[in-house]
Each structure stands twice: as C-alpha cells, then as structure tokens.
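Deliverable D4.2, example record:
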Amino acid sequence: MRTLLRLALEREKGTPREVERPRDRDTIRRERARGAAAAAAAAAAVTATATTAAVTAAESSFEWLEEKEVEEEEEEEEEEGEGRRMRMRMRMSIRMRERE
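Output generated by the structure prediction step:
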C-alpha cells in the first residue's frame, strides 16, 4: 500500500526520469556538434583578439621608434644650434678684444 501511494505521489510531482526526455544518437550528435562549434568560435575569437593585440603592439612599437628618432634628431639640431651660438659668441668676444 505504501508503495502504491509513493508511486502515485511521484507521478504527480514528476520524477527526474519522467521529466528528462530520452535522447537518441542524433540528438547527442547534434549537441556535441553545437558544443564543438561553440568551442571553435571561442577559439577563433581568442585567436583574432591575440592577432589584433600583436598588430597593435607592433604598430605602437613602430610609432614609438619613429617618435624616438624624431626626438633624437631634434636634440641633435638643438646641440648643433647651441654649438653655433657658442662659436659666434667666441668670435664676437675675440673681435671685441681685438678692437680694444
């Protein structure tokens, strides 16, 4: 009697066996294929992100090198300009002494 009552209660509530639908081979294959496709899409996204990051880093490095070269050229021009000014001052002071 208890067993029949228990079975009746389980049928009303629905046991996991009753709720879960039976899966055939095709359903399992489709689920696996969906999972594999999702994994491939995720891997492609990661690869694309890594590639983009590498390209961005390379571009940044190249830009940094260009900026560094420009800075060095400007410093050299500045130093050359200072050297010219110093030579002109020396010439002027020599001329001033000669005049005295």
